[in-house]
Amino acid sequence: MPRPLAAYIAGLVGAALIGLLATSLVFPVESGIAIQIDADPNSVGPLDLLAGLAFWTLVTLVASALPVRVSDGVQVAVSTAPLMAVAVLGGPTAAAWVAVIGTTDAREVRGRVAWYGTLANHAVIVLPVILGAVGIRLLRGAGEPFQELFATLIGTLVYFLLNLTLVSLVVVLRLGRSLREFLTRAETANVWANALTLAPLGWFMARMYEYQGGWWTTVLFGLPLLTTRVAYQRFVEMR
Q1: DSSP alpha helices (H): ranges in 65-144?
Q2: Kind and range of the H or E run holding 68
Q3: CA distances (Å), 188 to each of 45, 60, 124, 167, in order?
Q4: 93 vs 210, more confident
Q5: Euclidean distance between CA atoms 233 and 238, whole angstroms
Q6: Which of 155, 179, 156, 158 shows the shortest CA–CA distance to 167?
Q7: Which SS3 state, helix, strand or coil, does residue 86 take?
Q8: In CATH, what number does 3-230 get?
């Protein structure tokens, strides 16, 4: 591994760890993510919050399970939607912890990714999702639907831009490509830009989960997520 890349990964993982710990101390997990499992429907306890976190971690794992290979070893999944839904429902801490566990893909489980690669893969998601979730928290106001949707769009944009920057630097340092060359590849630009369209879907998932029927309604979004994943794959295959 080139020394600049090793230094970058070490700094990136360290920053992600500090961000995760600091976020966990500053922002409590919000009650919107809870799944009521105890006998008192009028209160939200730790078990309810853990149940909600576990559920969304599972949803994100499924969305991350079959990423699409774009170029230069970079892979894109449709997990942006559930991650942004978690940011809306549970706040920055919930989004960060779901990102840590839920973005594990099949290659990492099978040991096909080096340990430092696994750490880097999660770090380039955890840091952006924290900042995106903080942006949503600051901009959502009292939770009026259109304002919350706007906040989700801005938070997703923050997540997208920072994630793209961090991933691009990994590619530049690992392969020696120029940043411009990587960013201007057609498949890179189009697939990542299309990831922004998952922001409204993530917001809608959150609203359905909290207000319109509960956790089971999230299953209904499996088809649009699968369709998006297939569209990514078809686009890359045509290049």
Answers
A1: 80-102, 106-109, 115-139
A2: strand 68-69
A3: 43, 22, 16, 11
A4: 93
A5: 9
A6: 179
A7: helix
A8: 1.10.1760
